[in-house]
Amino acid sequence: MSLLVQKFGGTSVGSIERIKAVADKVISYRDAGNDMVVVVSAMGGETNRLVELARQVDPQARGRELDVLLTTGEQVTIALLAMALEKRGYPARSYTGGQARIMTDSAHNKARIKSIDNVKMTDDLKQGRIVVVAGFQGIDEHNNITTLGRGGSDTTGVALAAALKADECQVFTDVDGVYTTDPRVVPQARRLDTITFEEMLEMASLGSKVLQIRAVEFAQKYQVPLRVLSSFGAGDGTLITTEYGTDKTMEQALISGIAFNRDEAQLTINGVSDTPGVAYQILGPISDANIEVDMIVQNVGADGTTDFTFTVHRDDFDTALESLEETAKRMKAREVSGNNRIVKISIVGVGMRSHAGIASQMFEILANEGINILMISTSEIKISVVVDEKYLELGVRALHEGFDLKTKP
After folding, report:
1. Left if phi > 0, otherwise alpha if psi is -120 to 50, otherwise beta: which for 143?
2. 138 compared with 152, residue with greater pLDDT
3. By the 8 A CB rule, do 132 and 94 touch?
4. Most buried residue, 3, 117, 123, 169, by CB count within 10 Å?
5. Residue 8 in contact with residue 22, Cβ under 8 Å?
6. pLDDT for the residue 353
7. What gap in Å lies between CA 177 and CA 384, rounded to an integer?
8. Per-residue confidence band for 247, with pLDDT thresholds at 50, 70 and 90
9. Rounded to whole angstroms, what are the CA distances from 233 to 13, 114, 175, 230?
């Protein structure tokens, strides 16, 4: 008998009919001989509704009382799902984050899990009950309700799987797995049977929205096998596991997927003095404005000056540009420019470590399509390029075709 932790998001439990369908799906796994722990989010749109209620009272609402409000969404869902299971003759017990003893720090609205006391849940499982747990929430050492921030329910599922030593954590979404790229851009995109934690972390950080980065990091840290499945259909989905898994074909795949991010903006400051500390003088004020910098390129000119280019999230473009213009005046820079019509395209694959020529192949494919590369960033298992946004779909399709990702290795 295996122990499975299954997580269902807001779309999967968005109505009473869908909650009943989730109950039937959980029962099918229970009937196959598995012990079951189920983590659920609030019903689709409910958290946004609660946030809007809070904003009507206080536009700046945050902290402890906002957490108290937001966690009611999941409390509704766990009760309804437990009722649906009981109605079908399957004993179930629902737990809020506090009842499940999911202990967190006290950082309201973005708390991190410190420990989980699994005694009560383990006892329920031994008695044949299906355990239903509210995602996204916990309590701190003072018994204050806390929430885990964006992607919190995924993190709850993985954390419970680690604490209970589950055989697998299964995340049910509106897609049936992780694809070589977004099928809406490349209809020939192929669902991956397996992908490594490293690759999934890169895909998530580069724009793939199938799983939250935090949940993948947690799964990798505690070596929890993580599987992405469809809430609305059958299939084996995609297993996310260690690089040294049982799938021998993984060694043969140079590239596992192509990720892209439309939310990029580029800023450049030209003609600043090439002296120690110049990067800090430029990026310090950007950081002070709570703006995250992604890619950075610095070019040194023959006249002893340097040009400095970096990218930020498109939503931060105006604030970052204003900050950079003030910095330019202080540093007596020659010019400041910005471009918020760029995108980032990345190829990801652990196979790149042992194969030379992947970068040149990528650049050749883009050149053949007449796509100019504005910036380049590399790591052991990824190569990212910044291009004009009008070339996004053309570039992704060309790379998908050029690396033959529609064919199973």
Report:
1. left
2. 138
3. yes
4. 169
5. yes
6. 76
7. 23
8. very low
9. 15, 35, 9, 6
Asked whether 134 and 96 are in contact (CB, 8 A), the reply is yes
Give the H/E segment covering residue 397. Answer: helix 392-402
Judge whether 231 and 191 are in contact, CB under 8 Å.
Answer: no
User: Token pair of 173, please?
Assistant: 């979404």
CA nearest 350: which of 247, 233, 260? 247
How confident is residue 253, by pLDDT bands cut at 50, 70 and 90? low
The radius of gyration of the chain's CA atoms, rounded to the nearest angstrom, is 24
Q: Report pLDDT for 302.
A: 66
Residue with tokens 């001989």: 33
For residue 303, name the pLDDT band (cuts at 50, 70, 90): confident
Residues 408, 190 contacting (CB under 8 angstroms): yes
Packing angle, helices 358-368 and 392-402, rounded to 10: 130
* pLDDT band at 158; cut points 50, 70, 90: very high
Q: Which of 160-169, 237-246, 318-327, 395-404 has the lowest mean pLDDT?
A: 237-246
Taking phi over 0 as left and psi of -120 to 50 as alpha, with beta for the rest, 128 belongs to left
Q: Which residues contact 328 (CB under 8 A, 6 or more apart)?
A: 269, 272, 335, 336
Could you give the domains of the chain?
A: 3-173 (3.40.1160.10), 258-402 (3.30.2130.10)
d(CA 194, CA 188): 18
